Amino acid sequence: MTARILNMTLVLLLALAGGAAAFDGEAALHEAAKKEKEFTWYTAHYDSETAAAVCNGFEKKYAGVKCNYVRATAQVAYQRLSQDMKGGLAIASVISSTDTSHHGKMKKDGWLQPYRPKNLGEQIGAFKPFNDADDQFVATAAGLVLINYNSSLVADKDAPKKWTDLLDSRWKGKVSIGHPSFSGYVGTWVVQMRKMYGWDYFKKLELNKPRIGRSINDTVTMLNAKESWVGAGPLATTLQSKDKGNPVAVAYPEDGAILMISPSSILKNAPAPNTAKLFIEYLLSKDANEIMVKFRQDPVNVHVKPLPGGRSIADVKTVRPTYDEIDKGIPEVKELFRDTFGI
């Protein structure tokens, strides 16, 4: 009886220390992770500031384990992992891409190991259909691509109201977008625009001579610098920039904001497999999602709400290509984009 009471007390103390109820097996997994000491996370999910905060939160919650993050655009992160695999190098234990086709390809190529998180019950129900049926990737981040603009240059009433408004000649030389060859968010947006309006949408957009960055976050940088007036950009980074005092705002397109679902996977050759499992649990946790929303990311945990100033995804009209459309479409639109825009 005494041993049972001690065990129950230990579980309670661990839960209180972690700030949330412990999941089944958390203490044992933490002990196994401490023996591995550190792990590396390749991620395209957030900007560097948010990724650093998520890593720091993990280290505070799970003492004795170091989180090393490598933040890059989706394509760069995937190419880096591909080079590791070809070279027989085991560096990353977890990869999180914004291009869902990457996870499908990694699964097909046998790069991933299955893991079903104990914290899965904490995941918002709307995101569960985007988890892999074979447990080789799970949705750990979500966001929106919508219209952003510089509010010191564009009045709210004059901001574009739908995606086709970006084709208006009054925005010539004033539109910013990212590049589908680098960003999974941009690739998914391009696939969806083609699905809704055909490739003529981009032929017409080219006539407006948009400024083209790499990451979708580059649209925010260009708005802040007044290099562009409007853009097709990310909700989270735009609101994060606004919170810092920059004159940027968002418009939720009448024809639908693009819903972005970003998965995470554990690599089969992970140098720190136990830490990787612990980190996947953490990404789904209330603690991690409370950090994410401070940086204007959308929560995937049922107990966490967005900060004021941004709408809940559930309250927004959203559109999204299917996994198959993304898997087939992104390679196609990369070529079409280069042909149309010359870069």
Q: Could you give a short description of this structure?
A:
The chain has 343 residues and is of the alpha/beta class. The chain is built from 12 helices and 11 strands. Helix content is 41%, strand content 17%.
Looking at CATH, which topology of the largest domain would you report? D-Maltodextrin-Binding Protein, domain 2
Record field, number of beta strands: 11
Structural class: alpha/beta
Low-confidence stretches: 1-19
Give the tally of structural domains: 2
CATH architecture of the largest domain: 3-Layer(aba) Sandwich
Provide a count of the helices: 12
Overall, the morphology is globular
What is the H/E string?
A: HHEHEHEHEEEHHEHEHEEHHEH
Distance N to C terminus: 70 Å
Largest sheet: 11 strands, mixed
Care to describe what's here?
With 343 residues, the chain is α/β, with parallel strands linked by helices. The chain has 2 domains: 2-141 and 261-310, D-Maltodextrin-Binding Protein, domain 2 (3-Layer(aba) Sandwich), CATH 3.40.190.10; 143-259 and 315-341, Periplasmic binding protein-like II (D-Maltodextrin-Binding Protein, domain 2, 3-Layer(aba) Sandwich). Helices cover 41% and strands 17% of the residues. It contains 12 helices and 11 strands. It has helices at residues 2-18, 26-36, 48-61, 74-86, 100-108, 184-197, 200-207, 218-224, 235-243, 273-284, 286-294, 323-341; strands at 38-43, 66-71, 94-96, 112-113, 138-150, 175-177, 211-212, 230-234, 248-251, 257-267, 318-319. Strands 1, 2, 3, 4, 5, 6, 7, 8, 9, 10 and 11 form an 11-stranded mixed β-sheet that branches. Strand 1 (38-43), helix 3 (48-61) and strand 2 form a beta-alpha-beta unit.
